[in-house]
Amino acid sequence: MLNIGDVFSVVASLTGLFLTTTTIILGLGLFFRETTEAAATRIDAERSRPFWIGMLVGVPAFVLSIALSSAANPLAKFAGIMLMMWLLSITLLGAAAIAEVVSRRIRTLDQSSSPFATFSKGAVILVGSMLFPIVGWIFILPMVLIIGFGAATQTLFASRRRTPVVSEVS
């Protein structure tokens, strides 16, 4: 049987997770605005490609990071934890792009809202839906992680391939 303290600890943990994840997504989305908008445009334009990039690159990399962090060697363990943190940061940047997609949809419904207000609402809706029991944990959270990683990876590595434009001086 559950104690009232158990219920309070679960509610406090979920509230803390909700607030911190929302703020991280807001911070990344505002700090890396151009990258977030480019990834959101990729998600809008190519719906399946970010998913497959996330499945084929992100999932094996995450499994590798878990395997390395479970190793007995301290250097391998450190490398696994660093790889996991790097993957998580890319994934959260992609989650900010998904929040931007939600923000664009909200903006079409309410043109009087500011971009920051709609982006905040998009982040709250995204994180809130991921914390919803069963459906959020099993379906929405993995899809956000996979698509977010794929879109952010695609955007970050596509920007490296661009060549700078050199203007001629007369």
Give a quick rundown of the structure.
The protein is built from 6 helices and no strands. The chain has 170 residues and is mainly α.
Record keyword descriptors for this entry.
single chain, 170 residues, mainly alpha, 6 helices, globular
**What is the helix/strand order?**
HHHHHH
Query: What oligomeric state do these chains adopt?
Result: single chain
The biggest sheet amounts to:
none
* Fraction of residues in H or I helices: over 70%
Beta-strand percentage range: under 5%
Whole-number radius of gyration? 19 Å
Topology:
Layout (H helix, E strand, L loop, with lengths): L3 H28 L1 H13 L3 H21 L4 H36 L5 H16 L4 H27 L9
Could you describe the 3D structure shown?
α2 packs across α6. It is built from 6 helices and no strands. The model has no long low-confidence stretch (mean pLDDT 91). The protein is 83% helix and 0% strand. The protein is mainly α. The chain has one domain (4-154). The protein has helices at residues 4-31, 33-45, 49-69, 74-109, 115-130, 135-161.
